Amino acid sequence: MYDPAAPTRPPVPSPQVNPVRNRADWDAMRAAVLADPGAFHGNIAARNLHWLMDNDGRAVWASRAADGAWQGWDAETAATVSFADNGRMPWLRAFNADDAPNFRWFEGGRTNAAFNELDRHVLAGHGAEAAFIFEGDRWDLAAENGRGAPVDCLTVSRRQLLLEAAKCAVALQRLGLKAGDRIALNMPNIPAQLYWTEAAKRIGVIYTPVFGGFSDKTLSDRIHDAGARIVITADGGYRNAQVVPFKTAYTDPALDNYVPVTVALRLLEERLGGTDLGLSDDIRAAMAGIVTAALKGEVTVERGDVMRGLGRALAELGKESLVDAAQSARIRIAIAEALVATPPRVEAVIVATHVQVPEIVWRDRDVWGHDLTNAALTEILAAAGLPDEAALHALDDQAFVRAIWATSKPLPVDAEFPLFFIYTSGSTGKPKGVVHVHGGYASGIIETMKVAFDARPGDVMFVVADPGWITGQSYMIAASLLSRVTTVLAEGSPVFPHAGRFAAMIERHGVTIFKAGVTFLKAVMTDPQNLKDIEAYDLSNLRVATFCAEPCSPPVQAFGMDHITPQYINSYWATEHGGIAWTHFYGNGDFPLAADARTFPLPWIVGDVWVEDETGDRNATTLLTRGGTEGVNWRRAGKDEKGEIIIAAPYPYLARTVWGDAENFRVENGVVTSGWAGDAGRWRDGYWARWQGVWAYTQGDFAVQADDDGFSLHGRSDDVINVSGHRMGTEEIEGAILRDKALNPESPVGNVLVVGAPHREKGLTPLAFITPAPGQIITRDDERRLADLVRSEKGAVAVPGDFITVSQFPETRSGKYMRRMVRALVEGTPIGDVTTLKNPESLDELKRVISAWERKQRLSEDQDIFDRYRYFRIQYNMLAPGKKVATVFVTNPPVNAFNERAIDELVIVVEHLSRRDDVAAVVFTGDGTASFVAGADIRQFLDEIHTVEEARVLPANAQLAFGKIEQMGKPCIAAIQGVALGGGMEFALACHYRVAESHARFGQPEIRLRLLPGYGGTQRLPRLLTDRRGPEGLLDALDLILGGRSIDASAALEMGAIDAIADGATDALSMAHAAVREFVRLGDTSHLGRALAERHKVAKTVWQQPSHIDLDHALQDGFVQRVLGQLDWAGRGKAGERALDAIRTGWEQGMAAGLAREAELFAQAVVDPEGGKTGIRLFMDKKAPPLPVRRDGVHIEAEFDGKARRLEAAGDLLPMGAPFFPGVTPIPGHQYGFGIARDPDTGAPKFGPPASHEKQLIVPTPQPEPNEALVYLLTSEVNFNDIWALTGIPVSPFDNHEEDVQITGSGGLALVAALGSEVRGQGRLKVGDMVAVYSGTSDLLSPQAGRDPMYADFSIQGYETKSGSHAQFLTVQAPQLHPVPGDLTLEQAGSYILNLGTIWRCLYTTLEIVGGKTIFIEGSATGTGLDALKSAKASGLQVTGLVSSPARAEFVKSKGAVGALDRTDPRFKSLFTAVPDGGKADWAAWEQAGEALVSEYKAMNGGKLADYAVSHAGETAFARSFQLLGDGGKLAFYGASSGYHLSFMGKKGGSDPVTMLARAGARGGEAVLIFYGPGTTALADETGLEMIEATRALGCRIVVVTNTDGQREFILSLGFEDAVAGVVSLEGIKRREGGNFDWPDTMPRLPVAREDIETFREAVRLFQDRTLKPFGNAVGKLLRSPDNPRGNPDIVLERAAQDTLGVTTAMVKPFTGRVVYCEDMAGQRYNFYAPQVWTRQRRIVMPMAEIRGTHLCNAYEVTRMNDMIAASILDVTDPTVVPWEGLPEAHQSMWDNRHTGATYIVNHALPTMGLRGRDELYEAWASLSARNEGQGE
């Protein structure tokens, strides 16, 4: 007969072991199985497995050989045995169908799967064979000349696997496990998974493997349903080169966050029966009934689920007046307390070590697997009488097994003994545990290996599957081991990092059998470039490949046959089938293979296709009939008619039952006691009883059967869908979505139907149709929430691909939703009869929305503008016909760092783009504005990389990627829009052309981390810069590599590191694309064309040769020697040596050798404990020593005078005090300034007392940015900000910039010397204007600036900025320059903004003063205190001052104060201290002592206390100022000159949360942190609950902080749901962080900064690192949002009983954050760190008082202040004028608190005092010049 497909069919191979070689074989087997299934399968089982048999009274493991004899080994001695058949079988009855469908095979026979998988092969002498090959996820793309190789690859022999399994078996037994016990495994696909699996088999422990991608809820359900005594997990696994922390992500949440429903209901009923609750039996029963109904269908639940059910019960009973509010509260707390105390879920969690997850959370139940197996090995060796493991391995195979058996023999179990069960989805939404057994399962899957794959010893099989799926259990593990086939365990994806990964594995490991789902091949087919990735590898060794798990289409099979192997067959089976049921028979030409996606039933699979038919004839081949009328009538499907697949005869490896009836499951001597059949009803009804008159197994899949017995598969017949090979019930997904209604009372979800929609790669994807609740709509936020809900409940694979809103579902008149019609519309199949619908119009709406959805999907699939990767987005734009430009965006926020996976992807991106003929050029840029690429992921270096081999992958792959860019035959441009550091700069250097934004920064900072550049930086940078600038370029490169300092774009352009800078309206990306367009027009003559040709030339030839420039000469350069000395001093000497080693290798041997050397040295440095490990840790802890100074930044004091004379003589430096006429006098290139410099030898800032450490410096004159002006300073203000900068207290100003000097100074008087472009265009300022300079900067473009510029990244000039006003010139933001108000002298005009501005903000913005009130002002005789006194008096307040002498007391009274408290008064002198340490008695005594001060104040103020207080004197005065506040008083402070550790005593009087939240201005949507149960273990905290309820009512986002884990569980159980974003337990943080976390009783006492700055800094750092960071991270990750990236709370509801204000004032959001108290605070001391409140302007809101931080004023406030000065409302105090050279002494006097003036300025260029206005200044300068000229004559 003519076969039209014959020309395309592959040749028929010759089988070696397949017994089904032709149609006759198949027919004979089919006849035999129908005639006597027991005999047929018994013969297979006898030869395939070894069984425990009796031979002359001795137990032996034996199987039937080809000659009919039984052969094997003595079960005690392992001696070889052989005996005649004599017609014996190891079982009593081969097939028992007496209790159908509970079929039993090989009844009475005993075997053990582990013996058959492991022991027998070693006993047979095959111990040295590879049992499995493990290949880890991580991939070294650069290995083997760019072909790639795994980072982790391990081959384990059969002997070693046997030993590992025995060790694990002994470990399980020592934990008390015995045959019949259950365990759950939730692990990545790593060797330990196999070891523990085989151990369980060995001792008869039943295991359930759970797929690692399932949610914690799913894992929890399965652990409980299985009755697992132990869970085995791993610390983590790699997935796409990233660590997945299995234990903390899956296992711990599953066990900790969920409670079995049975346990919850038992605890509920027990507690409701408590006599203290006094509930009647009826009420108890009613409550329990309502909660039971709420939890129906669940296996395990969160405690909150129980509490929600209880809440419903209380609400219902409350309506009937059966319980009152007080009872409800008691009941709620009682049940919540009971639920917190649930018993342990499992006895132990065994944790396998794989990725060395750092700082893993450890619980009492946890035990390291290696600790158990090490102990087990000791026991095994002792029992065998061997000294060590080496002695064990020295034994021959049989002796080796005997030694193992001395401790761990395989347990002979009944053939029907459960081996494992895997949970699979059912159409009812209830996952079911499908049970497979030791005997028939093992025997059967061996046979499928022979038939489908012709599998035999020596084969290597690669199964792409997780052990949590049946494919992984059956073929990756069991069938391969049983058949003596080497199996490949692959941890990662078969297409990561590129589509050729699986092909590389096939080549590398000599794979002959390949098995994978359809999904991966569909993914490969989506991009033509993927095929080239595959074709790079040799697949000729591959004999056969098969699909599994999901239906295949002809095009996919054709692709596989054309490009993978001609023998790419299609196999069909499911979890319940146990192994392959339909397939192609290897080498059987009578069942021809073609790309038609068909498959054939194995001879023993009596497969058929049936359809329901009321008049059907029920005429088909069946094995077992049954009586009665149960089930549907049926018939065989006709030709080309779709029906349901059935199997009309059971077979041994088919599942036995569904796990259940665990209470009756008992084991005796390896046999399950009679009477147990699992969940027999579900097994019978769900699989066997559907068809009338017969027992026929029904899986629930559609198919069409052809005349030649070939089957075409057509998906599910029920509501189970197959997503990427994962089967799940749609009702499970619907249930997860509908759970939103229980969690959210305002849920917009009405109802939901989920169906499977076709997907190009996944096969099917869930599609959720939702009807909204009445009056509601489904928003995008709702959809995101629902998706997260499904993800958390069912895992990521279950998340719907889309949510589609409809008004109604098709519904029958009886109210049944017609799901099949919705499914038919989505699938495009006939809807069927619609006459039964009561709303046929619903179909029209569904058609419309489905059509729209399909259009959107097609648009997404057909678009060719984007390719999206995990870390890259490629945008294609047309340039000309057939020519595109590819713009590659790096998309790894926040800084676009290159982690390992990003580098892997970059290799693939570059490789694919290089192949594409339609791509003419490639532009690389970073996503966002801040970073191009900010280097590597150093956290990965520290935590995940521990060996040189692991570390070598990073530079190897990066160098491969950058080399491919450099060698690409089309131009590659780097458009650098931000930071390009480390790997980012190396990335840019590899490109042929580089353009950058003016604000971009470049550098190789690796030396800071004790590393060297590893991605090509030691090679390309010296070569490129030397090509541009000769020997100077080499020095530039050495400076960058060894110095580690960054440079700006202009410096990079000057060096030659980049080619162009974007300016004006042009940006870097636009410049890059303009260059590309020019290239397309002009080709080789364009800029890009020339750059491309030049780079190809030098990279291929010149750079591969030794350089002609002398490296040793460059290394003798004085500055380079200084840098090398500094590296030694800083502990980076070895890093410098490594960098120079790499540079020298490339310089003398060519770049190829240099790159190889660089990669090796980099890998060594990363893992070096004294190298990268220490360097990175120091950097992350902010303890890294400073970097060397820059070449132009070396300041040597002895050379100062000479340098000054030279520059002044050259006109490049103005003498100090020189007249400067803007627009006339040229702006010099250099200027004088006062500040501090870095030590030229160490790079450390030379902090210290001003008198000795503040130096006059010569620095470059800055240039203004577009929004800035350059001003010439006439005077500058002298203040404490300068002292902080000079002393580095509390933080170093060098932390904010990379300059080598810090010029101090904030504010002053100046002339505008030059304007930036934007300022010039604005027209408000012009060159020559005289302006008062505001003393701060902020982000003028920030949205926060609209609220208050102080909130927008505000920085103080000269302290938090890199330069200040104690210099001749300063760049200033234009809005910070103000006209001089009124008739001020120039010295007054230069003195008032900082001091008076600070006071203006303090009084009018912060305190919001009202006339007629009283105010207390610290330090009111001088400085800001005096300004505060005068301003408050002018505003109508009654002022009392605090002074430090009788004279000053009289002075302030003369200025209008009603009185003054003199702190030197003998009555008060001892009172001005911080609140002491100690206890409440000490605090009460301190407070009582202050009553004398209170009485004095009242006497001065008519018996009243202060309404306001202004504080700035620090810790010795602050507490008393607060004590002087009256009820409702407000204290503002803006400094702490006597110390930063502020304390105060709480005031008497409390309030409630509602009132206090209102007073604090709380709004819905704000993030609120609430402390619950502080300092106690009690679960009930009434005030804490009140706080939660009050905050919840406002609609705030809440994080609750509890003292204990028990309190945390209690809060979680109360059902607050979405209102509470999370609960943080201090006990949990302590457990996780160990000694790295400290929760102090109070803020630690800080050392006096001026006495010991280093000790002070260390104390601050410890408080930050051990308290603020771990606590802040725990809270921040719960509160993070797009508008709050750090997760700072807007409000903290503090507790009066604890002193944690030092923590909460540091955590609450800057500028707008409030710390709020509600309780009576009397008798309690509180402490906080002053700068956290005043510099960030936070508020502390208390029932009886308020503390408000305040700071410098903003530009608007300066304007208002100037108006008040002009109107004579405010008065400017005459300053003390300090000569330029007297500035250090003036600072020192402030530091010593011996200054006498109110305000200080330093004179820069005022020729005389008393001048007013610019004209008088010019005249004075002119007069001075005339006098000087006259004197000169």
Structural topology:
Blueprint lengths: L22 H13 L1 H12 L2 E5 L2 E7 L5 E5 L5 E4 L9 E4 L7 E4 L2 E2 L1 H14 L3 E6 L3 E2 L2 H4 L2 E2 L2 E5 H17 L7 E5 L4 H13 L2 E4 L6 H11 L3 E5 L2 E3 L2 E3 L1 H11 L2 E2 H12 L8 H14 L5 E2 L1 H17 L5 H16 L7 E5 L13 E3 H16 L4 H5 L3 H9 L7 E2 L3 E7 L7 E6 L1 H15 L6 E4 L6 H13 L3 E5 L10 H9 L3 E5 H8 L2 H8 L8 E5 L5 H10 L4 E3 L11 E2 L14 E4 L5 E6 L21 E3 L6 E5 L9 E2 L8 E2 L2 E2 L7 H9 L8 E9 L5 E6 L3 E4 L2 E4 H14 L5 E11 L3 E10 L7 H15 L7 E4 L13 H9 L13 H22 L3 E3 L3 E9 L2 E8 L9 H16 L3 E8 L4 E4 L3 H6 L4 H20 L4 E5 L2 E3 L1 H8 ...
Parallel strand pairs: 8-25, 12-13, 12-14, 14-19, 19-20, 24-25, 24-26, 26-27, 27-28, 42-43, 46-47, 47-49, 48-50, 49-51, 50-52, 51-54, 65-66, 65-68, 66-67, 68-69, 69-78, 71-72, 71-74, 72-73, 74-75, 75-77, 79-80
Antiparallel strand pairs: 1-2, 2-3, 3-4, 5-6, 7-21, 8-11, 9-10, 15-16, 17-18, 22-23, 23-34, 29-30, 30-38, 31-32, 31-33, 33-37, 35-36, 37-38, 39-40, 41-42, 44-45, 45-46, 52-53, 55-56, 55-58, 57-59, 57-63, 57-80, 59-60, 60-64, 61-62, 70-76, 77-78
If you had to describe this structure to a student in words, what would you say it looks like?
By secondary structure, the chain is of the alpha/beta class. It contains 61 helices and 80 strands. The strands form 20 sheets. The chain has a twelve-stranded mixed sheet with strand order 67-66-65-68-69-78-77-75-74-71-72-73, sandwiched between helices.
